[in-house]
Design brief:
Chain lengths: 257, 285, 367
C-alpha cells in the first residue's frame, strides 16, 4: 500500500477577523488530480498557498512525502529546504503567467532557471532541454530566445507550465491556470495539461471556479464555501449528483452546453 | 627610472586623530574586517562614516585603509591601474596628510595597495593587502533590487538567477558579454562582486597570497578574500570563462600580456595602446 | 612617441586654488560674514543643519560660505565634520509641548487651545519681486507680542487621541533608538530609524514623494493636524549627575499629519499619524517627511504597498543627497579600464555579426 503524497490535516487560516479557510483535511495520492472549486472569496486560493508552503496556516499541518527523505511537515522545514522542495519536487502555476515568469529574460532562460538552480552548468544541454520543453508545450522553438513580453497570453501560460515541469516535479499546484484566457485558447491549454499530467504521472492540486475545467482535468473534487469544505468526492459523482445545496447551486448555474 | 617615493609634507592636522578616523571607529571597522575574513565573500554591514571625500569616490576603501594603516606601512594608491590619476593622487595625499605614511608607486614595495578598477600586473606576495573600492557590493543587485531578498538568496546559496543572467548573455550575444565586475564564487560558498575590475583581472584574485579587502562606503558593507582562497569566475562548461586579449602590444614597453588602455591621439582617430598599470609599464622600459 | 597624460599633483593643486578664488569672487565686492549668512540666509542655514544632522548655525553658515551657496555641498561639508566629533551621548527626547512657538497652525480645527499663531511665513505673501530689497532693504522692526513661555502648548493630536479618534503614537519596537550615523541601516528598518533617515533625507526627494502620495500613488488622505515652529529646551542626563539638566535651546519645526484610515475587521476606523521634524524653520521639509512617514507605514497598517513612497527599501536607500550626489558625480572619475573592456567585447561581437552577414551573402551568391 502506498502512502499519500500530500496530506492536509485541519488546515486553518484567518486574516484578522476573517476566516479564510477552516479545518480542511484531505489526502492526495500519487498521480491524482484534486480540484478545489468554489466562488471567489471561498478560500480556495488561500488554502492552495497554505498547502504549497507560501502561507503559514494558523492551525493544522501539511505533510509531504519526499522522493528520498521520507515525509516532512511542510511548515516546519527550514526555509532553505522548503525553497529547494519548491523548485525540485514541486511546481506552481499562477493564474497570471507574469507572476510565474521572469519577463525580462528569454523563454530559454525561463525554462532553464530551475536546472541552473540545482547546478546545471552546460549551456548547450540546458538550451537543448529548454528547446525540448518548448516543443512539448507546443511553442515554436524559433521563439526560444524571445522574451515572454513578446508572447501572447496563451503562450505565456504554456511557457510557465514548461518552466515548472522541466525539473520533473511530482506535485504541481495550479491556481486558475486557464483563467483570463480566451475560450479557444483555454481549451487547447486544458488538452495540453491533461496530456502532460497523464504522461508524466503528475499529482496536481488545482484551484478553479470553472466546473468545466474541473470536470475535464480532475479525478476528485472538494467544494469550498466560506472557508470550509462542504462536499468532496469523485469528480463525476459530485458534479452529476451533488448533495450539498451549495454544490447543487454551483452545478445548476452552469449553462447547459 | 623615475623616483618612486612621492614627496608630501607630513604635517598632521591637530584637529584629527591619526589616520583620520577615531580609534573607536577603527576598532568597529577592524571587527567588521575580521568577520569578513572569517566568512570569505560574505558582505558584513558596518557603521560606515561620513568621509571628507564624496561617496562613490572610494569612501569604503579609504575607511578600510584608515582602519588598518600604521606608521610603518608603505601605501600605494591606483585608479585605473595608474598612480597618477586624479583620484589616486587625491587619496594618496589624504593618507600622507592624516597618517604620515610613506607612499610608493612600486607594487613590490607597498604593504597596502588601495585600488579602484584594477589589480596590479605584478604578482602580489604574502603580507600585502589589496584594498578595493566598491560601488555596489551586491552582485545580485541588478537582478534583484531588494536587499531583504538578496540577503535570503545568499543565505540559502540560491544563485540560479545569477546563472540565468549569464545564460541570457550567451543566448543574446553568443558569448558571455559581461566584461567587468564579473561575478565570482568565493571558496565555493558566496557569490561576490570583485568590484568593477575588468574580468582580465579575475584570475589574479584566485588563491592570491595577498589579503583582499573590499570596502563599500555608501552601501556600508565590507567583505574579504583571505590569502590563498579559491575564487572562481562563473561560467558554463561549454562556455568557459575567458579574459580579454589584444592584438596590439604596449606602445611604451611592448608588453603583450598586460591590460591595455586605448588612446585616441589625433583627429583622424589614430589609436595607440599602452599599459593601464603605469608601475608595471615603467619597470619594463 | 606618446607621453601619457599625467593627472598630476600640480594640476590638482591649481584646481584647488581656482575654486578658492572663484568662491571669493570679485574682490571689490565686500566679503560675506558668517553672521550675515546666519541672519539673512537663515532658511539655508536651517536646511544645512537639518540634512547635515548637526545643530550649529555658525558651522552651517561656514559650510554655506565655503560651498558658495551649494547647499548639498554644504551639507556634505558639515556631515564630514560632524562625523569626527566625539559622541557624549543622546539627549532626552524633546518635549515639543514646551515649545515657545513663533508659529503654530492647525488645518483640522478652526480654533485650538493655544490658538492659531501665524508667525513669520511666506504663505500669505504675494510672490512679487520686491525691488526695494535690491536697493537697501532696511526695514523697521515688526511689532511682536511677548511669547508665552509659561503655559504648555497642547498638541492637537493629543486631544484627538484622547477621544480615540487618532491612534496613539506608534511605539518604538526596539526600545532604544539606534544611531543611523554609527550603525548601518539594515532593512526592514524600525520606525525610529526610518524617521532618522527621513530627517536627514533630501528635501526635494521627500517633497516629490510626498507629492506623489497626494496624486494617487499611495494616497493617505492627509490633513495637517498641526505645524509648530519655535524654541524647545534640550535636556541631557550627564552620567556623573544622574538627572536631566537643560543644556540649551534649539529651534525646530514639527508637523503632525493626520491621515484617514478605514479600519479593519478588528480595529474601528481611526485616524493615523505621520510625523515630521526638522531643525530651524522648515515646514515644507517637515510636511513632506510626515507624508512619507505615513506612506511607509502601509505595511504595518495592512495597506497594499503599490507605490514608490510606500516602498521602504526604495525610499530609505535613495533619500540621502550626500550619497546620491557622490555616486552620480563619481561618473566623472576615469572609467577607461571598464570602458576598454566593453570596447573589446563590442568590437568582437560586431565582427562576429559582420562575419555571419558575409557568410550569408556568400551562401546566397552560391545558390
Amino acid at each position: 500500500m502506498s502512502t499519500p503524497l500530500l496530506s492536509a490535516r485541519d488546515v486553518s487560516k484567518r486574516f484578522g477577523g476573517r476566516v479564510a479557510c477552516r479545518d480542511v483535511s484531505f489526502d492526495l495520492w500519487p498521480g491524482e488530480v484534486l480540484g478545489i472549486v468554489g466562488e471567489s472569496g471561498s478560500g480556495k486560493t488561500t488554502l492552495l498557498n497554505c498547502l504549497a508552503g507560501r502561507l503559514l496556516p494558523d492551525g493544522g499541518s501539511v505533510t509531504y512525502e519526499t522522493r528520498s527523505a521520507g515525509s516532512v511537515d511542510v511548515h516546519r522545514l527550514s526555509e532553505a529546504r522548503r525553497r529547494l522542495l519548491a523548485r525540485t519536487e514541486w511546481g506552481f502555476v499562477n493564474q497570471d503567467a507574469r507572476e510565474g515568469l521572469r519577463m525580462g529574460v528569454s523563454a530559454g532562460a525561463n525554462i532553464g532557471e530551475r536546472l541552473m538552480a540545482v547546478g546545471a552548468r552546460h549551456y548547450g544541454e540546458i538550451r537543448g532541454q529548454a528547446a525540448d520543453w518548448m516543443g512539448r508545450v507546443e511553442i515554436d522553438v524559433e521563439r526560444l530566445d524571445d522574451r515572454p513580453t513578446t508572447y501572447s497570453g496563451g503562450m505565456r501560460q504554456r511557457l510557465q507550465i514548461a518552466r515548472n515541469l522541466v525539473s520533473n516535479p511530482r506535485l504541481v499546484f495550479m491556481d486558475e491556470p486557464t483563467g483570463g484566457l480566451d475560450v479557444s485558447v483555454q481549451a487547447r491549454i486544458l488538452d495540453l495539461l491533461r496530456g502532460l499530467v497523464e504522461g508524466l504521472h503528475l499529482s496536481v492540486v488545482l484551484v478553479t471556479h470553472d466546473l468545466g475545467v474541473a470536470r475535464l482535468l480532475t479525478h476528485r473534487l472538494m467544494v469550498m464555501q466560506g472557508g470550509t469544505v462542504v462536499e468532496q468526492g469523485l469528480t463525476d459523482q459530485v458534479l452529476d449528483d451533488p448533495q450539498h445545496p451549495y454544490t447543487q447551486m454551483l452545478v445548476a448555474s452552469i449553462l447547459p452546453v | 627610472m623615475p623616483d618612486a617615493t612621492i614627496q608630501d609634507t607630513p604635517s598632521q592636522d591637530a584637529a584629527y586623530n591619526y589616520g583620520y578616523l577615531d580609534e573607536q571607529t577603527k576598532r568597529m571597522i577592524r571587527r567588521a574586517i575580521l568577520k569578513a575574513v572569517a566568512v570569505p565573500g560574505y558582505q558584513v554591514p558596518f557603521g560606515g562614516r561620513e568621509m571628507p571625500l564624496p561617496y562613490g569616490w572610494g569612501t569604503g576603501g579609504i575607511q578600510v585603509t584608515a582602519a588598518i594603516i600604521g606608521r610603518e606601512d608603505t601605501l600605494k594608491v591606483i585608479d585605473q591601474g595608474a598612480d597618477d590619476t586624479t583620484n589616486a593622487v587625491s587619496i594618496r595625499r589624504f593618507f600622507a596628510r592624516v597618517a604620515q605614511v610613506a607612499t610608493t608607486t612600486h607594487t613590490k614595495e607597498a604593504t597596502i595597495i588601495q585600488t579602484r578598477h584594477r589589480v596590479p600586473e605584478t604578482p602580489l606576495t604574502d603580507g600585502q593587502i589589496l584594498v578595493f573600492q566598491v560601488p555596489i557590493p551586491e552582485p545580485l543587485r541588478m537582478l534583484e533590487p531588494r536587499e531583504t531578498e538578496t540577503r535570503t538568496l545568499h543565505a540559502l546559496s540560491e544563485y540560479g538567477v545569477m546563472q540565468v543572467s549569464l545564460y541570457e548573455s550567451i543566448a543574446r550575444h553568443g558569448r558571455i558579454a559581461k566584461t567587468y565586475n564579473y561575478p565570482v564564487m568565493v571558496n565555493g560558498r558566496y557569490i561576490m562582486s570583485p568590484s568593477p575590475i575588468p574580468k582580465f583581472d579575475n584570475p589574479k584574485l584566485d588563491r592570491s597570497p595577498a589579503l583582499q579587502l573590499y570596502g563599500a562606503g555608501r552601501e556600508k558593507r565590507i567583505y574579504a578574500v583571505p590569502p590563498h582562497t579559491p575564487v572562481n569566475s562563473l561560467d558554463f562548461d561549454d562556455h568557459p570563462f575567458e579574459v580579454e586579449t589584444w592584438t596590439e602590444s604596449c606602445e611604451l614597453c611592448g608588453s603583450t600580456e598586460s591590460f591595455l588602455d586605448e588612446m585616441i591621439v589625433d583627429d583622424t582617430g589614430k589609436r595607440l595602446f599602452v599599459c593601464s598599470d603605469t608601475d608595471y609599464c615603467e619597470s619594463r622600459r | 612617441m606618446y607621453v601619457a597624460v599625467k593627472g598630476g599633483e600640480t594640476a590638482i593643486a591649481h584646481s584647488l586654488d581656482l575654486v578658492a578664488d572663484k568662491r571669493r569672487g570679485d574682490r571689490d565686492v565686500a566679503e560675506l560674514s558668517l553672521d550675515q549668512i546666519d541672519q539673512q540666509l537663515g532658511l539655508a542655514v536651517d536646511r544645512v543643519m537639518t540634512e547635515g544632522s548637526c545643530y550649529d548655525r555658525s558651522l552651517a553658515a561656514l559650510a554655506i560660505k565655503q560651498a558658495r551657496g551649494d547647499l548639498i555641498e554644504a551639507i556634505f561639508l558639515l556631515r564630514a565634520y560632524r562625523t569626527t566629533l566625539p559622541r557624549f551621548g543622546a539627549s532626552e527626547p524633546l518635549d515639543t509641548t514646551r515649545m515657545v512657538a513663533e508659529r503654530r497652525i492647525s488645518s483640522t480645527f478652526k480654533d485650538v487651545p493655544g490658538g492659531q499663531v501665524l508667525g513669520p511665513t511666506y504663505d500669505y505673501t504675494h510672490r512679487l519681486l520686491d525691488f526695494s530689497l535690491a536697493a537697501s532693504g532696511e526695514r523697521p522692526e515688526a511689532p511682536t507680542a511677548p511669547a508665552d513661555a509659561t503655559h504648555a502648548l497642547p498638541r492637537v493630536g493629543d486631544i484627538l487621541q484622547r477621544d480615540g479618534l487618532l491612534e496613539p503614537p506608534p511605539s518604538n519596537d526596539d526600545g532604544e533608538a539606534r544611531d543611523l550615523t554609527r550603525d548601518p541601516l539594515v532593512l526592514p528598518a524600525s520606525r525610529p530609524l526610518r524617521l532618522q533617515n527621513l530627517a536627514r533625507g533630501d528635501e526635494g526627494f521627500l517633497l516629490a514623494l510626498g507629492y506623489s502620495t497626494q496624486r494617487g500613488y499611495g494616497n493617505n488622505h492627509p490633513f495637517v493636524g498641526e505645524i509648530r515652529y519655535g524654541h524647545v529646551p534640550v535636556s541631557f542626563v550627564p552620567e556623573e549627575l544622574g538627572f536631566a539638566i537643560e543644556i540649551g535651546e534649539i529651534e525646530v519645526t514639527e508637523c503632525d499629519m493626520v491621515n484617514q484610515f478605514a479600519g479593519s475587521h478588528d480595529v474601528p476606523p481611526q485616524f493615523t499619524r505621520g510625523y515630521g521634524l526638522a531643525f530651524g524653520h522648515a515646514e515644507r521639509k517637515a510636511m513632506a517627511m510626515a507624508l512619507v512617514d505615513r506612506a511607509l507605514r502601509a505595511d504595518e497598517l495592512g495597506e497594499a504597498v503599490t507605490s514608490p513612497a510606500q516602498d521602504e527599501e526604495f525610499v530609505l536607500a535613495h533619500s540621502d543627497n550626500v550619497e546620491g550626489s557622490g555616486f552620480v558625480q563619481h561618473l566623472k572619475l576615469p572609467h577607461y579600464v571598464d570602458f576598454q573592456s566593453e570596447l573589446v567585447v563590442v568590437r568582437m561581437l560586431r565582427a562576429e555579426v559582420e562575419k555571419r552577414r558575409e557568410q550569408a551573402a556568400l551562401a546566397q551568391a552560391a545558390e
